[in-house]
Amino acid sequence: xxxxxxxxxxxxxxxxxxxxxxxxxxxxxxxxxxxxxxxxxxxxxxxxxxxxxxxxxxxxxxxxxxxxxxxxxxxxxxxxxxxxxxxxxxxxxxxxxxxxxxxxxxx
Length: 107
Description:
The chain has helices at residues 6-12, 16-25, 46-54, 60-71, 77-103. By secondary structure, the protein is mainly alpha-helical. It folds into two domains: 1-32, no CATH class; 43-103, no CATH class.
């Protein structure tokens, strides 16, 4: 497959040139949003992170419930994350996530 040129990209959609010009003009003010797949080579995926965070829960029943959400046949990852936040509080959850991802780059 041949590489696509910049001009071909600009011509793929009528607004591409306008969007490109805005990006160039406002580059210093932009915060890019990229899909979650970009971080896959750098950080553990969400199920692994939630499982490892759940392992830190001190209350056995709560830990078991959260692990069931993560490891069940139909994983309930958002519910597991919410249960962890409910357990630790918003600040505690943020602290645990920061610690987890700082200790697990490239995992």
